[in-house]
Amino acid sequence: MGRRKRFEPEYKKEVIKLVTERGMKISDVAKDIGVSDTSIRRWIKAYSEHGKNAFPGKGNLRPEDEEFRKLKKVIADLKEENDILKKAMRIFSRDVK
After folding, report:
1. CB neighbours of 55 closer than 8 A, spacing ≥ 6?
2. Within a 10 A sphere around the Cβ of 33, how many other Cβ atoms?
3. Roughly what angle, to the nearest 10 degrees, separates helices 37-50 and 26-33?
4. Does residue 77 register a pLDDT over 60?
5. Average pLDDT along the chain
6. Do 1 and 45 belong together in one domain?
7. Residue 81's domain spans which residues?
8. Cβ atoms 5, 35 nearer than 8 A
């Protein structure tokens, strides 16, 4: 098994243009660059849905995904703080009785 090919975002955009603007067949372009038809269809779909943010690159997230990740972290932190406060309330309420 070989390693998966990685393509830069600009390269993917150029491949998309070949299909969408020049009217080349997906199968011909896929064969020329050595990827599956499905990969190119996925690139076209991603680009149509997310525009310039479609291919953020290795290890990066689209801005909306980054915001979602940050919000999930805030929620997790707040839940942890809430649990700590609940435990503290139980401890202090025991001492009062």
Report:
1. 9, 12, 13, 43, 46, 47
2. 15
3. 110
4. yes
5. 84
6. yes
7. 61-97
8. yes
